[in-house]
């Protein structure tokens, strides 16, 4: 188990109660999809667990504990207790990929500093058409264009 460094704001968004048993003390934050399996440090991949529940996932009596099944059961129990899972509606996540794509759009696209058409831009960047237009719309709003 590695220590996850979160800001107080991030802890509030994720929750300050074990999503498995509901405890509000001895809390730790856990990667739902482990970093070793391709997970990342975004808020939607982190849940709050008490020390006991977190230890069971990593060092449970069952040597071959199914990580995803244990997490699924814990999240289901939390839902049954009325715990609201996930980020609040309307929360906007900013990813490294979106930041990099937006920088490339500004560089390449004719609506900004470049000379490429929309189709050429999203194909070169390697993002979907829908993502391209979403990012382009956000850039125009951010820059009042």
Describe this structure in words.
There is one protein chain. The chain is mainly α and 145 residues long. It has 2 domains: 8-80, DNA Binding (I), subunit A, CATH 1.10.30; 96-142. The chain has helices at residues 8-14, 51-59, 67-80, 96-108, 118-125, 129-142; strands at residues 27-31, 46-50. A two-stranded antiparallel sheet has the order 1-2. The longest helix has 14 residues, at 67-80. It is elongated and about 55 Å long. The chain starts with 7 loop residues before the first helix and ends with a helix.
State the gist of this model.
With 145 residues, the protein is mostly helical. The chain has six helices and two strands.
* Largest pleated sheet: 2 strands, antiparallel
CATH class of the largest domain equals Mainly Alpha
**Which strand order spans the largest sheet, edge to edge or round the barrel?**
1-2
CATH fold field value of the largest domain: DNA Binding (I), subunit A
Uncertain segments are none
What is the distance, rounded to the nearest whole angstrom, between the alpha carbons of the first and last residues?
46 Å
Rg, Å, rounded: 20 Å
Question: Hey, roughly how much beta strand do the residues contain?
Answer: 5-15%
- How many strand segments? 2
**Overall tally of structural domains:** 2
- Helix content estimate: 40-55%
* Class computed from helices, strands and strand pairing: mainly alpha
CATH 2nd-level architecture of the largest domain: Orthogonal Bundle
What's the overall geometry? elongated
Q: Mean pLDDT, nearest integer?
A: 83
N-to-C SSE series? HEEHHHHH
Q: In DSSP terms, counting alpha (H) and pi (I) runs of 4 or more, how many helices? A: 6
């Amino acid at each position: 188990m590695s220590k996850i460094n979160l800001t107080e704001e991030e802890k509030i968004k994720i929750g300050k109660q074990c999503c498995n048993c509901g405890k509000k003390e001895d809390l730790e934050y856990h990667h739902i999809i482990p970093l070793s399996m391709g997970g990342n440090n975004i808020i939607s991949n982190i849940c709050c667990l008490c020390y006991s529940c977190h230890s069971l996932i990593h060092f449970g009596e069952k040597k071959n504990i199914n990580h995803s099944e244990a997490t699924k059961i814990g999240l289901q129990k939390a839902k049954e207790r009325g715990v609201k899972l996930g980020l609040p509606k309307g929360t906007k996540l900013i990813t490294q990929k979106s930041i990099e794509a937006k920088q490339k759009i500004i560089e390449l696209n004719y609506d900004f500093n470049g000379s490429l058409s929309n189709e050429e831009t999203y194909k070169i960047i390697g993002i979907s058409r829908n993502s391209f237009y979403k990012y382009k719309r956000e850039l125009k709003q951010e820059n009042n264009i």
